[in-house]
Amino acid sequence: MSNRFLALCAPLFVALLMAGCARAARHEIGVRRVADGLPAQSDLALMAVQRGAWIAWAGALSAPDLFVQPVGAAQAWQFPISGVPSQVRLLPLAEQRAALLWLERSIGSAPRLQCATLEPSGTLRRAPFDLGSAQRYSAVPAPDGGILAFIISDEQLSIARLDRLGRPFGAHRLAESAYLAVATLDRRDQVHVLWLAPGDGALWQLLYVAFEAALLDQPAPRMPAPTLLAVLRLADGQYFESLSAGADEMHLYAIWNVVSVRQGGESARLEGVYFPLSAPSLSRALDLSALPANLRGVSIPFDNSLRGGAPTLVGSLPRYVVYGALTGQGVLRVQGLAAARAGERLVSAAAALGTNNALHLAWLVQNAQGATQLRYAAFLRPQPVAAN
Known about the structure:
Shape: globular
Strand order of the largest sheet: 1-28-27-26
Oligomer: single chain
Low-confidence stretches: 1-16, 18-27
Order of helices and strands: HEEEEEEEEEEEEEEEEEEEEEEEEEEEE
Largest sheet: 4 strands, antiparallel
Mean pLDDT: 89
Radius of gyration: 20 Å
Number of helices: 1
Number of strands: 28
Strand content: over 45%
């Protein structure tokens, strides 16, 4: 699709998006201001709980504490750390506990993956502990109530495990070369892992492997050979910004963002594939034409309930959060939330799926004077068949 065509369609899409915002407002569970004065560079993390959600973020570089605040609470829980945090994540553990993960960098050292576990009251169950060197990571709740973390260190991809209490046990090498990695589970507790690996010159490989979660219980599990899903090419000035994956009852979906850096700024292009869970070799390009151009911060929130329905795709524009249902026919029921008011810009956003088919959103906005505000809303999750 040409840039000229997208430019001509942009006003129409904004009009449709505004109409979608009006429809979405009818299903609003709650929109509220959570906190003021967050650092503009803060990563946001969001976790749905039985009643609402918890939001986590990092403090200013001069005082890089971590903060966790239940939506509706008067103030955040504060956890001092020694280095500068990034890639903050909140994940559920068994018995309504939570794991707080982040990369921490100290002066003169490489980043390392840290983890702390929290009681439902917000008190520390276990103080921060080190999970090893990591340039990037992703993590998902495990079927046994623990967590699976997929860590890239020195270009190698490994799986680290946390048990139901958040204690580390066991690590397994998965690939010798990886740049971005993501994992998800299907409704049969099968683990699906995808990663982007550099090839020759400008070529990259999108690789995939699936296995039963119980395989990791073995002392030396023999991992299956990966499947090559696609060969991708990056032009000069381009880089991969994100990689996400999600599954429904029949298919697995993978999406990634390619960002082009030019003198006039950045532009983004979203691409994706889908395939039957039983036949990854039959992967096909995913139709993403219903989404606006330059969608950033794209993710597929993990469905911890695994009760069915289409995976949800979430992304952001300078003033909107956009979301829709992923299907083999493309992205359906695309809706938008006007997250930033006039004179504000959307800095970052996070999404999580909760009970009662709820999509939870948290986002950070900044006004022209540099002041920031953290906001939250929850809506019915879009589905391709049932009318919202």
